TrEMBL record:
Belongs to the trehalose phosphatase family. One of its GO terms (biological process) is trehalose biosynthetic process. GO terms for molecular function: trehalose-phosphatase activity. This is Trehalose 6-phosphate phosphatase. The keyword Cell cycle does not apply. The lineage of its organism: Eukaryota, Viridiplantae, Streptophyta, Embryophyta, Tracheophyta. It catalyses: alpha,alpha-trehalose 6-phosphate + H2O = alpha,alpha-trehalose + phosphate. It comes from the Eukaryota. Its cofactor is a divalent metal cation. Its EC number is 3.1.3.12. InterPro entries: HAD-like_sf, HAD-SF_hydro_IIB, HAD_sf, OTSB-like, Trehalose_PPase. Pathway: Glycan biosynthesis; trehalose biosynthesis. Removes the phosphate from trehalose 6-phosphate to produce free trehalose. Trehalose accumulation in plant may improve abiotic stress tolerance.
């Protein structure tokens, strides 16, 4: 498998922007936009915080509303955006997906290719939660994974070191998954419960050891620890300020405050956006990111899911090794940071979960959580048949930990 191949063919960029600017403004909405180009970090431009002529500083004119409207577009609309003159039918959408899959093959169809790369290596499995292990649902509190999926993940963790990396708080995702065999990274990797590190000299303020209820040692790494009181304050303010908006739901993810607007009447979305926008004006060290029908307020720090993957690999003593194959499965824009780390480090590959074509740094694709479960199950079956070829999680220091 060529882990260095580039993806040159045109694909549809995710309409939900990854906002590099602190206020989360999509460049296509700015006067100096670069629409029509493929996604790159250079497309996201920081703008001055003060009003400029022609660019009033509110949600209607600075791109927030556009990003909110496009955060979960119907599949047909995505295809229409790709070719606005085309009459979109299911057949058109299917053809576009099939064409896209030539570049990002299904990890199930290309299973032999995957296992061929893994044959003499230790797989390390990284999994996003929402939209990857669980379906996307209207109420985030009800985004449950199926028993079948839980069983598949448990089996994967039996053979390979496995971590969940989620935008949710670590406690919340742990409750939803409920498996003690895994490592958990919450808040987009800003709250990592990982193995005891080999290199004790790498100790610092954001990093400390602890024990779980059963006395097992683990390490907690929180690179944005200093922001906890600030996020709590922001959470409380957002709860108060969105109180009158029916359907708005605010969550405190410890290192990130989220405002869900999936259940808010569309005509009130600008009100939701304005609430968050006005609040951010008072917190220059926080920024906005757009998720699926959710606005997220996060610290401005150089840390993301990619850095979390690297941290966990370091902690396991498995980074930079030719005999290790990290695999990351995720569906979200924030997962692209992890795909990118693996691609650029030529040390594994990402698998994007998406039912429609998207630009991605992943190597393979899967359509939905059902296909994720099928892939994980096949991987376990393959390992059991080939047992003894690769090193199991049990032989990796820190493996088979209990929370
Ligand atoms: Mg997700």
């Amino acid at each position: 498998m060529d882990l260095k191949s580039s993806h040159a063919s045109p694909v549809l960029a995710d309409p939900t922007p990854v906002n590099k600017s602190r206020l989360g403004v999509h460049s296509s909405l700015l006067p100096y936009s670069q629409t029509g180009t493929s996604f790159s970090s250079s497309m996201y431009i920081s703008i001055p915080r003060k009003n400029k002529p022609g660019v009033p500083d509110d949600v209607r004119s600075n791109g927030w509303l556009d990003a909110m409207l496009s955060s979960s577009p119907p599949r047909k609309k995505l295809i229409m955006d790709m070719n606005s003159d085309a009459v979109v039918t299911d057949e058109t959408a299917d053809n576009a997906y099939a064409s896209w899959m030539l570049k990002y093959p299904s990890a199930i169809n290309a299973f032999e290719q995957v296992t061929s790369a893994a044959k003499t290596k230790t797989i390390v499995m990284f999994l996003d939660y929402d939209g990857t292990l669980s379906p996307i649902v209207d109420d985030p509190d009800r985004a449950f994974m199926s028993d079948g999926m839980r069983s598949a993940v448990k089996s994967v963790a039996k053979y390979f070191p496995t971590a969940i990396i989620s935008g949710r708080s670590r406690d919340q995702v742990y409750k939803l998954v409920g498996l003690t065999e895994l490592y958990y990274a919450g808040s987009h990797g800003m709250d990592i419960m990982g193995p005891v590190r080999f290199d004790e000299s790498d100790n610092h303020l954001n990093y400390h050891s602890s024990t779980d209820k059963k006395g097992k040692e683990f390490n907690l790494f929180q690179p944005a620890k200093e922001f906890i009181p600030m996020i709590d304050e922001v959470f409380k303010t957002l709860v108060k300020n969105t109180k009158g908006i029916k359907g708005a739901k605010v969550e405190n993810h410890k290192f990130c405050a989220s405002v869900h607007y999936r259940n808010v009447d569309r005509k009130n979305w600008p009100v939701v956006g304005q609430c968050v926008h006005d609040l951010l004006e008072k917190y220059p060290r926080l920024r906005l990111t757009h998720g699926r029908k959710v606005l997220e307020v996060r610290p401005v720090i150089d840390w993301d899911k990619g850095r979390a993957v690297q941290h966990l690999l370091d902690s396991l003593g498995l980074s930079g090794r030719d005999d290790v194959l990290p695999i990351y499965i995720g569906d979200d824009r924030t997962d692209e940071d992890a795909f990118k780390v693996l691609r650029e480090g030529n040390q594994g590959f990402g698998i994007l979960v998406s039912p429609f074509p998207k630009e991605t740094q992943a190597f393979y694709s899967l359509r939905d959580p059902a296909e994720v479960m099928e892939f994980l199950t096949r991987l376990v079956n393959w390992k059991e048949v080939n047992d003894g070829v690769a090193v199991s999680a049990a032989s990796v220091p820190g493996g088979q930990r209990e929370c």
